[in-house]
Structure formats: C-alpha cells, structure tokens
Specification:
alpha/beta, 7-stranded mixed β-sheet, 5-stranded antiparallel β-sheet, 13 helices, 38% helix, 18% strand, binds pyridoxal-5'-phosphate
Length: 432
C-alpha cells in the first residue's frame, strides 16, 4: 500500500523499521524523491548536497543525461537475455574497452557480474583455478563485501562480520601500511612474510588482494612503493596480485584505476560502483591466460552483465572522455584537500587530511592526539551536516574518518557550498 499522504522522513522511517530488518543500516534518516548531479531532494522538499554519491557510485552524478538516454534506448531494445544464453554486443564492447584501459603490457579479458562482492568472489575463484592453490592474503582494515568469502577477506569485524562466522578457510590478514598509526611499509611487508612463516607456505598462496586506497577502512592510501614491493613479492612466489578497485576505480582517484599511479599492473582487478553510474554491474579484468583458467560454465550469473548495466557503463566511459573527468578528479581533489587542510590548521581535532585524486577524507581525534580516535565527534559531524543540508559518510576502523565522494561532475560552486556546510557542521559538532 502506498502511503504518500504521510510522506515525511519520520513517517517513512517508522514504516521502514517495521518492514525491513535493522541489519540493513541507515546512515541518514532521509528519504529522497529526486536526484540531479550532486544534489538530492527529500520527501519533505529539502535539498541536500550529496558528498556520499551512494558510496562511490555516482562519479558521474545523479541521473547524468547521457546515462539516462543510453539506458532508455537500451530499454527500447531488450532488457534481459542472460548473456550465457543469448549474447549481445554492448557486453563485448564494454569488455574490449575495459581490457584497453586496464594497466599491464599483456593480453587481457573481462567479464561482468552484478555486485562488487560478486566480482571479488569471482576473482578469488579465478586465482584459485589458475594457480591450483587455495590460500588468500588480505589486509587489516580492508573491505571486500558482504558475502561469506568477501566477509572472510574483510579486515573489519564491527559491524560486518559480527555473528556471521565461520568464514571460508585459508584466508589470512597482513597489516596494511598506515604511517599515521605507526605501520610502515616495511612492517606491512614483514607481516606478509610472517604469514608465510606462521600460517601458510607461500607456495600454497593463490592471491594477495589489496585496495590501492582502502575505502571502508578509512581512505588509507597504499604507498606506491608498498604496491611495487607487493608486486615483486607476488612474482617471487608465483602469487597473483588482485587490486580491488571497486571503490577507487572509475576515475575517482584521478586515473581510471588508482593502481595505475604506482606503475603496478595487477594480475586481476575488480571494479563496480561508479563504472555504470548507479546501475548494478561489476567486472573482473585480468591477464587473459589467468582469466581463461576456469572451464566454460565456471563463471557467469543470471543477471551478470545486464544489458542495462553495459549500456550505462559505456555511457560512463563516453562521459569521462567528453567531460575530461580524470583531470576534473585531480583538480577537485586538490580543491577539497586545500580546503580541508586549511580547516585542519584551525581545529586540532583533525588528525589527518588524506586521499588520492578526489577520494579525500579527514580523520578526527581527541585532544589533538591521532591515537585517540573520536568516533562520537564524527557521528555528531555527520548528523549536523545532514541538518545543514549536506550528506556525509563516515568510515575507518574506529569510525572516526569522514570521507568525501562528491560527483566529479559537481560544479566548483556546489563543492564549495558543501565544504562550507561541512565547516559549519564541524563548528557546531565541536560545541555539543
Ligand atoms: C573495495 C570494495 N570492495 C568490495 C565492495 C563490495 O561491493 P558491493 O557492495 O557492490 O558488493 C565494496 C563496497 O563498498 C568496496 O568498497
């Protein structure tokens, strides 16, 4: 039954609570009716600037006209056939385009799925099939999804893993480098070696999976020399390197894939989120010989690589070229970083401003001490921002990092207005 006469956020939240399990969390008690580029409007007619972008899905903004047109056109032809039953050209074209974009001087192949977690699951399947090994190494504070394998890989217990174990075996966690919190690149690499000593011999490890910038984990940027040395370690032991670019990909960091900036070519890359501007499609791209390891029928899925997702993703690629969004990502990143750094000089609670391209975050602490994370202040800041009309998201192992994922298509004026709101929200949150 629709209940539009009672369409307030509070009334809809009450219906939501009664109808939907609490496990599906809710960052903001806001129900939207409209989205346009970097702005959304709620059921009560309030406008918000969206710095969350559906968690890194809207690099091209809400309802980019070219994406909407491409999907409408696709709707007029066919919407579903299941690619493994009846094939269609947009799937093939998209694979060709992504093969050409992925780093590495070797032949590549790509196939499509529906969600990020599904892409990660499949990358692990492919790595195991190719290497005929079972072990997988992931990193502390990493996030790879909510299915059982990806939860096993995820290095953050609360709230993702609580009550859901046991997880698949043969998964081990090494330390992710974090200079602010005393984990050097040497420490991180030594922790991989420790796994080889304590848990599993290197010759049984199929893959190491790493986010070039940790998303949920707090926008921790992997130093380039860490990624380079990880690549060398993988080569030394015949281990595949998987870059999880589900949050960092599709131009968010100033290059199509974040890992390009380190000069490292992973064997496999997972992508999803912004690759189709809000339409559900994900991908695994990788070395052709590795990708061909699973036998026919071993990969795929009913909805995997839907024609609507392919049409949207091809439109996203066109938009990136036309609107030069990689350059925009770099410029936007600098603009946001400059502003947050200026804010940090005024507020000792800002322990760090960091990021890559337009993937920028600030970390909040107590008493000017980076080792005392302030999750309460972070919560107050996000809540206050919502009141001001800004949608912000937190992240980080201790819930004390505020991340900015504003559409790359947002104008400077909108970004500045959002940053003004952030600044005002921080001032109010600090008084509480
Ligand atoms: C790095 C990374 N990997 C995997 C995932 C899982 O993607 P999905 O939520 O589409 O399953 C996410 C989602 O936030 C992510 O950021």
């Amino acid at each position: 039954m629709s209940n539009t006469t009672q369409a307030t956020n509070a009334a809809l939240m009450a219906r939501r609570r009664a109808a939907i399990p609490r496990g599906v969390g809710q960052s903001h008690e806001v129900f939207i009716t409209q989205g346009e580029n970097a702005e959304v409007w709620d059921v009560e007619g309030r406008r918000y600037i969206d710095f969350a972008g559906g968690i890194a899905v809207l690099n091209t903004g809400h309802r980019h006209p070219e994406i909407i047109a491409a999907v409408k056109d696709q709707l007029d032809h066919y919407t579903h056939t299941c690619f493994q039953v009846l094939a269609y050209e947009p799937y093939v074209e998209l694979a060709e385009r992504i093969n050409a974009l992925a780093p590495g001087n070797f032949d590549k192949k790509t196939f499509f799925l529906s969600s990020g977690a599904e892409a990660v699951e499949n990358a692990i399947k492919i790595a195991r099939a190719y290497t005929k090994r079972s072990g997988v190494i992931a990193f502390t504070s990493g996030y790879h999804g909510r299915t059982m394998m990806t939860l096993g890989l995820t290095g953050k217990v609360v709230p993702y893993k609580v009550g859901f174990g046991p997880f698949p075996g043969e998964i081990f966690h090494a330390q992710f480098p974090n200079a602010l919190h005393g984990v050097s690149v040497d420490d991180a690499l030594a922790s991989v070696e420790t796994i080889f000593k304590n848990d599993i011999e290197a010759s049984r490890v199929a893959a190491i999976i790493v986010e070039p910038v940790q998303g949920e984990g707090g926008f921790n940027v992997a130093p380039f020399d860490f990624l380079q040395r990880l690549r060398a370690l993988c080569d030394q032991h015949g281990i595949l390197l998987i870059a999880d670019e589900i949050q960092t990909g599709a131009g968010r960091t100033g290059t199509w894939f974040a890992i390009e900036q380190s000069g490292v070519a992973p064997d496999l890359i997972t992508m999803a989120k912004s690759m189709a501007g809000g339409f559900p499609i994900s991908a695994v791209v990788g070395r052709a010989d590795v990708m061909d390891a699973p036998a026919p029928g071993g990969l795929g899925g009913t909805y995997a690589g839907s024609p609507l997702g392919c049409a949207a993703a091809l439109a996203v690629l066109r938009i990136f070229e036309k609107e030069q969004l990689l350059q925009r990502s770099q410029a936007l990143g600098q603009r946001i970083t400059r502003r947050l750094q200026a804010l940090a000089t005024k507020h000792s609670v800002i322990a760090d401003v960091r990021g890559l391209g337009a993937m920028v975050a600030l970390e909040l602490c107590q008493n000017g001490d980076a080792h005392q994370p302030d999750a309460d202040l972070t919560k107050r800041l996000c809540a206050e921002a919502t009141k001001q009309g800004l949608i912000l998201l937190s992240c980080g192992t201790y819930g004390n990092v505020v991340r900015i994922l504003v559409p790359l298509t947002a104008s400077d004026a909108i970004v500045d207005e959002g940053l003004d709101m952030l600044e005002a929200a921080l001032a109010t949150a600090l008084q509480a």
